[in-house]
Write a structure and sequence with these properties.
The protein has one domain: Nucleoside Triphosphate Pyrophosphohydrolase (Alpha-Beta Complex), CATH 3.90.79.10. It contains 4 helices and 12 strands. Strands 1, 2, 3, 4, 5, 6, 7, 8, 9 and 11 form a 10-stranded mixed sheet that branches. The protein has a two-stranded antiparallel ribbon with strand order 10-12. The mean pLDDT is 94. The N and C termini lie far apart (42 Å). The chain is globular, with a radius of gyration of 16 Å. By secondary structure, the protein is of the alpha+beta class. It has helices at 21-27, 83-89, 149-156, 190-204; strands at 5-9, 15-20, 30-40, 47-53, 64-65, 68-71, 99-110, 113-126, 141-148, 163-164, 167-170, 179-180.
């Protein structure tokens, strides 16, 4: 994985050369990523799907994160990022099925890990249950939790301390139902999370 070659850029997206994944994260160079948030529309409430990262992951093992996400490699376009959905979740989704939410900057810094991302963010809105369709990439994904999207907004904004999952799919076939707080999520920048939920809310035409 560390041999991946990624196009580094400045904060405004101007290319400055190709670097290894390790150098990108060690030096904090800006780079572009693909983020896809899945929201399942149900009669009761829209449910946002949060990926449970494998305990074997080098970065942020065992935390909840974006439904599917990854780096855009140096030889790839943004459209190629849709491969992350197929690789991590095992479901076929076409790029034209995604709702673009724009570029949102995100910064994560933990010890010697400095991750400065220009995130190409997309929404996959589905009215079809995906529980029996997910085939997780086990070294990457341990399962998927589903949360009431409006409750997730309250959690991400700090208005509530905890929310309960509304559904769980485990790679190991175990029940995973749990209560979570912000500490259970990958520590994305608060401004990133706020912008993501705002744009998803507008895309879904949801009013609180």
């Amino acid at each position: 994985m560390e041999m991946e070659r990624i196009a580094a850029c400045d904060e405004n997206g101007k290319a400055i050369g190709v670097r290894s994944r390790d150098e990108i994260h060690r030096t904090g160079l800006w780079h572009e990523t693909f983020h896809c948030w899945i929201v399942e529309m149900t009669d009761e409430a829209p449910l946002i799907h949060l990926q449970l990262r494998s305990s074997d992951k080098k970065d942020f093992p065992g935390l909840l994160d974006i439904s599917a996400a990854g780096h855009i490699l140096a030889h790839e376009t943004v459209e190629d990022g849709v491969r992350e959905i197929v690789e991590e979740l095992g479901i076929e989704v076409g790029f034209d099925e995604l709702i673009p939410l724009g570029i949102i900057k995100d910064r994560l810094t933990v010890q010697n890990f400095i991750d400065n991302e220009r995130c190409h963010v997309f929404l996959y809105k589905t009215e079809e249950g995906l529980d029996n369709k997910y085939e997780f990439q086990k070294e990457e994904v341990a399962g998927m939790f589903k949360f009431d999207f409006l409750e997730f907004i309250e959690l991400s904004s700090g208005h509530v301390a905890h929310i309960e999952s509304r559904g769980e799919i485990s790679a190991a076939g175990k029940l995973l139902r749990r209560q979570i707080g912000l500490s259970d999520l990958v520590p994305h920048e608060p401004a990133y999370l706020k912008e993501v939920v705002d744009r998803i809310q507008k895309a879904l035409l949801i009013h609180r």
